[in-house]
């Protein structure tokens, strides 16, 4: 009579992990595969953009940079010919010799957070072209397109459920996989096979060897991409934002509200006459002149904004300050920001990188790494390798499923069910508690995990009935 006590490596928990790893990988695999492949392209997109948009991004003139006023005025003349209603909302001075300045305009018909950037040669103020750009990262059309595929498949909020499913379950499947890997570590006679594929094997065992070894190498990358990717998701992302807010982990921002004389439009300082709104009422549209960009930047430079990569954003109304923010995403990052009163040309609010809470710094660094920006090309190549490794894991998983077919069947066998029914009471309670906790923090993965546990229990109960066939 066979023993009813399974060996430790085949206990209820290992069986539960195996079935969860299999079923989650089977059904979520397509989402993870799309996210991995699009993410692989997105990882190297910054380098691709430097080639595709070389004309717009490079400035051939070797002359000294002209004032921002000249560059902004040139961009305004260029835009006025076709879009006279467009207004300047941001200027990004050329960060290095040979780079162009970006003068960014509002434009009807663009996506949310998207502007029209006019690229100006700082040396002679000639316009090199114009392109739509997206977000703080300044993504150009190629990277914006890849990013939209990666985040939502061009399906809006409905599509974001795909990326949330992929990001959430990627972490769960990875953790289940490393749990199974740890169980094998206890029993494997050749530990080397756990990290290096055994090419002597054939068929299913060969595929499994490649799957397990690849998983060991990409585990940390998969968990990192899952954790940072969740911050962009719909439901889970909102929960993360709420949690950060409750724990005061959010990044600080400068205060742009002006009061007193500034809010009443009263002039002050030697530069006050340049803004052209000395008697403007509170909250009325602000008048922005090209000369102000040089003046505001000079104030910011004297207030600890030293990075070459900055963005200058004029105030929309007279009761608001201008802002100058460092946007250096590579290491070491530069995130200092200053709010400047355009009437007195003085700094009225300031935030430095040292003001960021520890978790806000970690989140910023994690997101920059996820985007391939923190360490430049090496960062991009590591992300590319991790994304391709995750994609290979998905494909190998499906190949293994196919290779597990028995004669006369069209698909492979699934791991045995009933693990939760065999679990001790404390184990079952722990699993359900974890599932409920995940449902609260990560709704998509939590709800689907509870669904998996319910289906698994119902299937087990059905097969346990007298006369039920297996």
Automatic annotation (TrEMBL):
Keywords attached to this entry:
Membrane, Transmembrane, Transmembrane helix
TM region(s), chain numbering: 20-45, 166-183, 210-235, 381-402, 423-455
Q: Entry's Pfam families?
A: PepSY_TM
Record's protein name: PepSY domain-containing protein
Q: Which organism is it from?
A: Curtobacterium citreum
